[in-house]
Each structure stands twice: as structure tokens, then as C-alpha cells.
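Researcher: Here's the sequence for the chain we discussed earlier.
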Amino acid sequence: MIGRRALLAGAALWPLAAWTQAARAETGPRILAFGDSLTAGYGLPASKGLVPMLQDWLVARSTPARIVNRGLSGDTTYGGRVRIHWALRGGADAVIVQLGGNDMLLGWSPAQAEANLDAILTTAGAKDRPLLLVGIHAPGRRQDWRRGWAGIWPRLAARHDALLLPDLYAPLAAIPAGERKPFLLDDGIHPSAKGVELLVGHLGPQVQALIARVSAS
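Model: Thanks. This is the structure I predict for it:
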């Protein structure tokens, strides 16, 4: 049986551990997460969205950083092009750019998205600010359209010397279709909290690499 003193000592340490985690989250570079509903945490409790769960993932791995959520549900690459200047007003040491999914759903061309993302990355990467570009696979059966989308991510990353995660949804796509339901919200598009956990495990190492670039600069 655990003694009373041990219980009291453990209880005293709990606030300290919580304070230490919070302090870690408030230190380190300011990383702007600029995206659409996936970044914003659509349909999820505040603590279960992509940004807070990514913050927790980094804290658990002793990687200090402040991830600032600038996700906007429904946003397109054109909308991002309009608001990137506003999003950067608070300052940022590095920027994660995650846009394009809504362009796909609207049937917009990869060329349009590439031009918009090019402008976003130019603004976000000013003064040699490190960048991470996060892509997503194009749905549907039109192979030429899907290839067009797949091609823009590496081109843009190379053009802007950005780190690249070609497909944020890769961990979900790897799950057999009949087993994906617990990882998605009822709309069948956005990730559930369980799905976000998978995405964060996929995204996290690239964010660590982005933070390392900030430290190196």
C-alpha cells in the first residue's frame, strides 16, 4: 500500500508537473499554423484540435515552441493569400502553411492553387523565415487532376526552400476504408480527435525539423 507521505508528495508534484508543461509551451519560437478547418480544429473540443494536440506532442518530447492557431474553416488558397499579411501581424519565427483542401472540394485547378500558395509562401517566408508546407492528396477518380495536385507540393517546397509534408492525410488513407469511421467526424472528411492524434504523429517530426531551422538561423 502507498504510504500517506508518498501520496502527499505525489500530490505536491502534480501542480509542478502541470506548471512545467505550461511553461515549456510558452517558451521557444513562435510558430504560426496557417490553414483551413484542419488547422482550426473544426468540429472538435478546443483541446482536441490539431494545434493544441500538436503543442502537447511537442511538450511531451521536450521541444519548446508556441504554436499559434491561424486556421480558418472553409478557407481556400485565395482566401489565405488575402489574409496572410494580417496573420503575420503578431510576428512569427516560422510558418506552417496548410491549405488546398477546399480548393479541391470546389473543383478549382491545381494551377490556381499553386499561384496562390506561391504568393502565400513568398510573404510568409520573407526575411528568410523558415517554412513548412503541408499538402493533402486530391480525391476523386480523375488521374490527371490528381497528378496535377500532387505535383504542386514538391515544386513549391523547392521554390521556397520549405520543408514539406506531401500528404497530411496519409495515415488516414493507410487505414482500410471500412475501418476509418472512428478516425473521422460524421461528415466523413474531417478527422475526429482519434484521427487528429494520428495526423499529429505524422506531422510532428516535420514541425520539430522546422523548429530546428529556427534555432539554426
